[in-house]
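This section describes the prediction task in plain terms. A model, or a person checking by hand, is given the sequence of a single protein chain and must write out its three-dimensional structure as a string of tokens. No templates, partner chains or ligands are provided. The sample shown here is typical of the held-out split.
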Amino acid sequence: MAATHQFSESNGAGETVTDGISNANFGNNDSPNLNTTTYPITRGNASFEKYHRSKFSGTFTEISNIKFWKSAGAYVTGESCKAAFDVAYAQPSQTPNADSDVPVAEPGTHNVHAADGSDTIVAPGYTKYWRLQLQTTDSTPAGAVNTKTFTLQYDEV
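The expected answer:
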């Protein structure tokens, strides 16, 4: 048998967890599975932060070497996507954060850890959080931005 993976998103002041999200769209609302037409980001502003983590279930011996990066999709002028890894959950904010840019190539080493801080997951459960935020400037063109692909890769034993 193999591990089952789901992306999870946490939202709100009291942390509501949604496992198995259908998209990671950024918008001007703190909720999972956003429709960007309903919750657009006005240029010059930032999205609400997204607190994501992976949930593993099923039967496995070990999950390790967990890496996250942007693998496809070009940024438009003035657009960036910020990320911080192994963060604690906090109520998402629309205030631009000072996190680093999301890696745009596969990292040389893992950047996501197990919930207990170790390098491996040995029983069903979650990873630590990674926080994402889309930021724009006044020079970002109005309208929809390009679609991006984020990749999460891991080794399973």
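For orientation: The two ends are 11 Å apart (CA to CA).
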